[in-house]
Specification:
The complex is a heterodimer of chains A (638) and B (258).
Chain A lengths: L14 H8 L5 H4 L3 E5 L3 H13 L2 E5 L17 E2 L11 H11 L6 H21 L24 E2 L5 H18 L3 E4 L2 E9 L2 E9 L5 E5 L2 E4 L20 H8 L4 E2 L4 E7 L22 E5 L17 E2 L1 H5 L9 H13 L11 E4 L1 H7 L1 H19 L8 E10 L2 E2 L12 E3 L17 H23 L10 H20 L5 H16 L5 H21 L11 H25 L23 H4 L1 E6 L8 E6 L14
Parallel strand pairs in A: 1-2, 1-9, 2-5, 9-17
Antiparallel strand pairs in A: 3-4, 6-7, 7-8, 10-16, 10-18, 11-15, 12-13, 12-14, 14-15, 18-19
Chain B lengths: L2 E7 L8 E7 L8 H14 L22 E2 L2 E2 L21 E5 L8 E3 L2 E2 L2 H8 L21 H11 L6 H5 L6 H13 L7 H14 L10 H5 L7 H16 L12
Parallel strand pairs in B: 1-5
Antiparallel strand pairs in B: 1-2, 3-4, 3-5, 6-7
Classes of the chains: A alpha+beta (638), B alpha+beta (258).
Chain lengths: 638, 258
């Protein structure tokens, strides 16, 4: 099977307009004849469900949370990028496009990224009209801040809760459609399989998490908006419930999985405090606008109170190494730099795994009130977790797993290799290449949900002739039986170890051997250890309770089972990619000064993996990445 | 440190519940309260007993999923903090801690410490939105909003919909939640067109759901993890009164030429 991204022809700047002019339309009166399933109600899923319902499609939306307003998009703190150029500082669609493509180390599809930059401005208009309370100037206009990887101020924000406010916008739009009867909402419901009939995605199998009831839902198209897989590392900034189950089970049904090794490690998180820890907490990248990152120049000073280390003995390593971007160097680069200084023994705090993020200069310059105004809630959050006051002493921070750039492979129309299966937001692979810039995740989720999928799904309906497949079809029954068997098997093992203990062990393997620095050797260790761990899981996991009730233990065990398979795919992808790019850093491939060394001659492609059966090696398919308008430069932030 | 926990156990809404006592031994003061419960659950699973179910997701104080009453106070005694961000360093070694679900008629118990808060969604569906379709939006800066108003709207919009305000209220009133939601949109010019019908519809849905009345004791404001101000209740009451006084506008005849 060949991978056709179906990118429209013509100059980059005209591709999306050309697509929209050429695409087929569904007559308004016919739209109600099409059923669409949307799984996941974060920014991309919520926006898609609301917009598709507004257009007239019959939408069923599913989420595992108790209400669609709680998806993990809610946790995004810092902001959303858009090429509005309100600051008159030289921003443009092209510049946002170029920053995003370069930020992703030229491993994203050029045409997708350009379209993202094009629609970015409409997102801000849409959200403002919904009543998202963006930060404003006294004159009433919207204000901006700077974010990593950019030299313009193009990030819009709503205090420290931009994600929650944008999600509430999408949720409110969904509420309106629910009240109009255009969306049927299924909260506390988890998708457990995708149903494929004659090679086309036709529906899903879900479990009601309260009653345990399994039900079947058929539709003309299935949209997965199920987020990323960072929890394969156990400790990450993702919510406890985030998982790979929906996209992984779709992969097993034939949807290729692209670039799983592109994972993002965020430089500014609160360091791990102990074994009990269930998740890590991010401190917004926006803090790097005013905070300066440093460690002592000498190892001996690491134990001293930070204020007593004289200016001359501090190493502001980001400012030193990357003078033109300074503390706002992109995430992958800032994370690696933090690891590097800690590896030389100059890390601070417990275990020497931390660096300072210091606000004292900014407080001297602008006053404590100004800093409180900008970041008050973040400082409070830091204080709640660590018990320390960051106005008085620098924060301790350390990198943590945060985001997955990889995901289900999709074409230009956001459709996977399975016709009828669309994948949006973090769940797809499309726009961030090997590294995502700050404030671009919210932008992509809403772009996909509000402005791209609603067009491309209509084109799919209008250009394919499909007969309805009812949920009574044999394939649905087969998938249902598979799900029931899986649940029975988990419950019947009755071993000695909890699902959490397996998840933690997997996470440690992934962080140690497939984290910020990967080597052939470390990846080979994982490729040996993960199957062993998986085997032990299926012999020795202990799941209490039954399948016919609310059973969080069972839910988690199912997700861990998928992580245990998916982790192997991730390591396999990392092993095959013999280059360093963005968040994927192979120690064997670095420049003399320790920067990532890409290999465009051999690896300028999207690696899309096809499932070939349990215990069989997946097959690699390559989608070449061709930059028509820009040069694949060496990425430098110096 | 060690804690003695009295935790609410209830199979489902139809069965009666009761407290069970469990020891949390050798827990660290750096743990969050929920991480301590994770540890207790892991030990229960190891001993072949059923773990307690409780709601949580983001564990960074923003998704509003977690919902425990600790020693009689929703989210525990620390001001402006959700239970997922409440750390054990604020408890005493050897202390006895009671853990219960939200208790309100409009929030039926699902199991153990989990309740059903769908009533909040239904209130939002009654009018907690601006009726604007995707693609209809004017240029964002075409409608200036003063910083003061934008900040006020943001103060209200900070509500995470956890329901602590209902859980603490002796009347199980949802006034603070509904007021925050109404005020967020009613303050902004974008929400003005539907101001009157929004407040009327949302208040009417709130009453239908079986939430109690407000007697302005202020306990809701005191436990709110986002410290939403009681002032918004006054704002909502004003908006509601104005909407009632205005009454229904006469509907014009449907249809048109052509």
């Amino acid at each position: 099977m060949s991978l056709d991204a179906r990118i429209p022809s013509g100059p980059l700047a005209q591709k999306w307009d050309r697509y929209k002019s050429d695409m087929k339309l569904v007559n308004p009166a016919n739209k109600r004849k099409f059923d669409v399933i949307v799984v996941g109600t974060g920014l991309s899923g919520g926006a898609a469900a609301a917009t598709l319902a507004e257009l007239g499609y019959q939408v069923k939306a599913f989420c595992f949370q108790d209400t669609p307003r709680r998806a993990h998009s809610i946790a995004a703190q810092g902001g959303i990028n858009a090429a509005k150029n309100y600051q008159n500082d030289g921003d443009s669609v092209f510049r946002l496009f170029y920053d995003t493509l370069k930020g992703g180390d030229f491993r994203a599809r050029e045409a997708n990224v350009f379209r993202l930059a094009q629609v970015s401005a409409s997102i801000i208009d849409q959200c403002a009209a919904q009543g998202v309370p963006f930060a404003r100037e006294y004159g009433g206009t919207l204000t901006n801040r700077s974010f990593g990887g950019a030299q313009v101020s193009r990030t819009f924000y709503a205090r420290g809760q931009t994600g929650q406010q944008l999600l509430l916008g999408a949720y409110q739009a969904m509420c309106r459609q629910i009240s109009l009867g255009n969306i049927r909402m299924y909260p506390r419901t988890e998708m457990l399989d995708l149903v494929v009939v004659d090679g086309v995605a036709r529906g899903i199998v879900v479990r009601n998490l309260v009653t345990g009831e399994i039900s079947l839902h058929s539709a003309d198209a299935v949209v997965l908006a199920t987020g990323g897989y960072a929890n394969v590392f156990f400790l990450s900034t993702n919510a406890i419930g985030c998982n790979v189950t929906a996209t992984y089970r779709a992969y097993k049904k034939g949807a290729f999985f692209a670039n799983p090794c592109y994972t993002q490690i965020h430089p500014t998180c609160i360091p791990v405090s102990g074994d009990h820890q269930a998740k890590l907490t991010l401190m917004s990248e926006s803090l790097r606008n005013d905070g300066r990152v440093w460690v002592p120049r000498r190892k001996e000073d690491c134990g001293r109170p930070p204020a007593s280390v004289p200016e001359a003995d501090r190493d502001y390593y980001l400012e030193r190494k990357y003078p033109s971007y300074g503390n706002l160097a992109p995430r992958d680069i800032a994370s690696r730099a933090a690891k590097e200084v800690c590896d030389t023994g100059r890390g601070v705090g417990p275990g020497g795994r931390g660096v300072y993020l210091d606000f004292s200069d900014a407080i001297k310059r602008s006053g404590e009130d100004a800093i409180r105004d900008r970041y008050g809630n973040l400082f409070e959050m830091y204080e709640r977790i660590t018990g320390e006051n960051a106005y008085r002493q620098p924060m301790h921070i350390y990198p943590a797993v945060h985001y997955a750039m990889g995901g289900t492979w999709v074409d230009y129309g956001l459709m996977s290799t399975l016709p009828g299966l669309f994948v949006v937001g973090e769940a797809n692979f499309s726009d961030h290449g090997a590294n995502r810039l700050g404030a671009s995740g919210l932008m992509q989720g809403l772009a996909d949900g509000y402005f791209i999928l609603p067009y491309t799904i209509g084109h799919y309906f209008a250009s394919t002739k499909q007969v309805k497949v009812p949920a009574s079809h044999a394939e649905f029954k087969k998938a249902e039986e598979g799900v029931r068997q899986f649940t029975r098997r988990l419950l019947s093992i009755n071993g000695q170890r909890s699902a959490t203990s397996f998840h933690k062990e997997l996470g440690r393997l992934m962080w140690e051997n497939c984290g910020m620095a990967r080597t052939r050797q470390s990846l080979e260790i994982n490729l040996k250890r993960i199957p062993e761990l998986r085997e032990e899981f299926w012999k020795n996991v202990k799941v209490t309770g039954s399948g016919e009730e609310l059973n969080q233990n069972l839910e988690h065990a199912g997700r861990v089972a998928d992580f245990l398979e998916f982790a192997e795919l991730l390591c396999l992808d990392a092993l095959h990619r013999e280059e360093s790019c963005g968040g994927h850093f192979r120690v064997e491939h670095q420049t003399e000064d320790g920067e990532a060394k890409r290999d465009d001659a051999n690896f300028a492609y999207v690696a899309a993996w096809e499932f070939k059966g349990a215990d069989k090696k997946p097959e690699l398919h390559k989608e070449p990445l061709v930059c028509e308008e820009v040069h694949m430069a060496t990425r430098s932030y110096k | 440190m060690n804690l003695t926990l009295k935790i609410w156990r209830q199979k489902n809404a139809a069965s009666p519940g009761c407290f069970e006592t469990h020891e949390a031994r050798d827990v660290s003061p750096d743990m969050s309260f929920l991480e301590m419960l994770d540890v207790v659950n892991e030990r229960l699973i190891a001993g072949g007993q059923e773990p307690f179910v409780f709601d949580s997701d983001c564990r960074e104080g923003i998704c509003g999923t977690c919902s425990l009453v600790i020693n009689g106070i929703p989210h525990g005694s620390r001001k402006g903090t959700t239970v997922c961000q409440l750390h054990l360093r604020y408890f005493k070694d050897g202390q006895t801690v009671t853990i219960e679900p939200w208790r309100a008629r409009a929030f039926p118990i699902v199991k153990d410490l989990i309740v059903d808060r769908a009533a909040f969604d239904r209130i939002m569906q009654a009018g907690g939105f601006v009726s604007v379709n995707t693609g209809n939006a004017p240029e964002a800066n075409a409608l200036p909003v003063s910083k003061e108003i934008a900040d006020l709207a943001m103060d209200a919009a900070a509500c995470i919909g956890c329901g602590a305000c209902v859980a603490v209220c002796k009347n199980a009133s949802a006034m603070l939640f509904v007021a925050a939601k109404v005020s967020h949109l009613n303050y902004l010019p974008q929400g003005k067109a539907e101001k009157d019908r929004r407040v009327k519809n949302m208040v009417s849905q709130m009453d239908k759901e079986g939430f109690g009345n407000c007697t302005v004791t202020g306990s809701c404001e005191a436990v709110c993890p986002k410290e939403i101000s009681l002032d918004f209740i006054a704002k909502m009451n004003r908006d509601y009164a104005v909407a009632l006084v205005k009454g229904e506008l006469k509907k014009s005849a449907a249809g048109g030429v052509g």
